[in-house]
Amino acid sequence: MIVPDELRYTAEHEWVAIDGTVASVGITDYAQNSLGDVVYVSIPAAGTAVTAGEPCGEVESTKSVSDIYSPVDGEVIEANPEIEDDPGLVNSDPYGAGWLMRIRLADDGPQADDLLTAEQYAELTKEDE
Amino acid sequence: MTGFAGWQMPLRYRSETAEHHAVRRAAGLFDLSHMGEISVTGPGAGAALDYALTGQPSAVAAGRARYTMICAGNGGVLDDLIVYRLADQEFLIVANAANTKVVQDALAQRADGYDAQVTDRTADYALIAIQGPAAAKILGPLTDISLDGVKYYASHRAHVSGREALLARTGYTGEDGFELFTAPGDAEHVWTALADAGSGDGLVPAGLAARDTLRLEAGMPLYGNELGPDVTPFDAGLGRVVKFDKPGDFVGRAALQAYAEAGPRRVLVGLTGATRRVPRHGYAVLWHGQARGTVTSGAPSPTLGVPIAMAYVDPEMARLAAAGGAGGALAVDIRGSAEPATMVDLPFYRRAD
User: Fold this and answer.
1) Cα distances (Å, whole numbers) of residue B224 to B37, B77, B297
2) DSSP-assigned letters across all residues of A30-82
C-alpha cells in the first residue's frame, strides 16, 4: 500500500494536497484497493460548498458504495473531468490522474494541522487490516 | 482476502472486472474449497434423500447431477444444493459453506430410519472450478477422459494432471465449465497445472467478487440474498425443483403444496438501472413512489455495462410493470433518491450456443 509522505490524510481514507489556499483531494491507495474496481464517482460540481467531515459525493465499485467526505471547509472549484469517462483512474493512479476535486479553502476552515500525517494514516490502516 | 464463512477467501486476485470478462471471453480459475461436501451412502441413500430434499435423487442416474433444495417443514429454503449421484448407493451433496452444518444436521436427522450414512466430507475435498468458453480446451489435454462425453450436470471420475479427481460439468457463472473435486493435497498441483496450461488462452484466477457478478448476470440465486429460511422455492421462481409427483412424503411437502396452490406471495424480477448508481441489497423498489419490493442483489454489470439487480416485488407490481406503458413508474430508492429502473427478464446474460 502506497502512502506518499508529502500528503495529508483523513480517517475516511481521503488524501489532501494543500497548495496555498487550494486543496486537491482524492481517495487513498488503501481505499481504492478495499473498494475494488471503481465504476462511478459522484463528485460535487464546481461552486458547491463543502464542510469538513460531511459527505459530498460517492464512489461506486463492483461490490459497494462509499461516501466521499470533504476533508476541509471550502468551495469546490474543479471536479476531475476525466473521472466521468474513466472512473478506473481512481484505481490505477489514486494519487495522480485519479484525483477527484480541488477545493478553495474557507478562510476560517480547518487547516492541514487537523489532518493526519502519512505516518498516522499508515498506522490507522494497519490497525484496520 | 476476505473472511467468508470461516474461510479466508480471495475477493479478487487483480481486477475483478478483468476476471469477470476473462470468464465470459476465455476462462477463469476459482478456488471453491470452502464449499461443503456431504456424502450420503448406503442401500437407503436414495430414499433418504427423496424424503430430505425437494428433488428426487433416487431417480437420477449414476454419473448425473441435479440442482435441488433442502427445505424446512414450513417450506422455507435451508439451502440450495447440487446432488451428484456417483454410484447407485453413493451421493455427494455440495452445500454453501455457511450452511454446511445446517444441511449436515438436517440430513442426518432426516436419514434416521433409513439404511444410509451421512458424512461431512468438506475437509476431504478441495474444489477447483474452471469456467468459460475456453475451459474444455484447457482442461481436455490434462485429463484421461474425453470431455465430449461429460454432459452438462454430469460427473466422471478422472485424472487431472495425474491426480485423481471427480470431474463435473457444473458451475455458477453462466458459462460452460467444470468443477474438480480433489484431495486437498493435490489441489495446488492441479491448480498450477491448469493455470500453466491456460495462460496462453487467457485463463486467469478469479475471486469471489467476479463469481458474484457472473452468477448475478446469469440470474442464479445466492443463498442469503435471493434464498433464505423465509423464502420458498416458488418465491424464487424455482418451483421446478419441487417434485410433488415423487412417491412418498418429503419434508415440507404439505407447506410447499399450499404455496404452490396459493400462487407466489412475491416474485423475483430482474431490474436494470437507468443511471450509473447501483441498486444494492436491501434497497427499496418503488412503483409510483411507493415501496413495493426489495433488492436482493445488485451490481454494475461488467458485460452489459449498466447496473443490474434482482429484487422481490409483489406480484401485482410485477404484472403492471411487465405490461409496460408506465414509463418512469419504476425506480429504486438509492440512498434517498428515486433512480429510474426497468424490469427485464432473467437472466440478464445467456451465453450464445
Assistant:
1) 19, 10, 10
2) HHHHHH-SEEEEE-PPTT-EE-TTSEEEEEEESS-EEEEE-SSSEEEEEE-TT
Q: Which domain holds residue B284?
A: 266-353
pLDDT score of A128: 56
Q: Cis bond leading into B347, ω under 30°?
A: yes
- Quote the DSSP letter at residue B143: B
Instruction: Kindly state whether residues B202 and B279 are assigned to the same domain.
Output: no
Under CATH, what is the fold of the domain A14-109? Answer: OB fold (Dihydrolipoamide Acetyltransferase, E2P) (2.40.50)
Q: What's the pLDDT at B1?
A: 81
Closest CB to B17 among A37, A42, A65? A37
ipTM of the complex: 0.87
| CATH code for position B346 | 2.40.30.110
- pTM of the full structure: 0.94
Cβ–Cβ below 8 Å for B300 and A62: yes
Instruction: State how far residue B136 is from chain A, nearest Cα, in angstroms.
Output: 28
pLDDT in tens, B143-185: 999 999 999 999 999 999 999 999 999 999 999 999 999 999 9
Alpha-carbon distances of B338 from A61, B286, B291, rounded to whole Å: 20, 8, 11
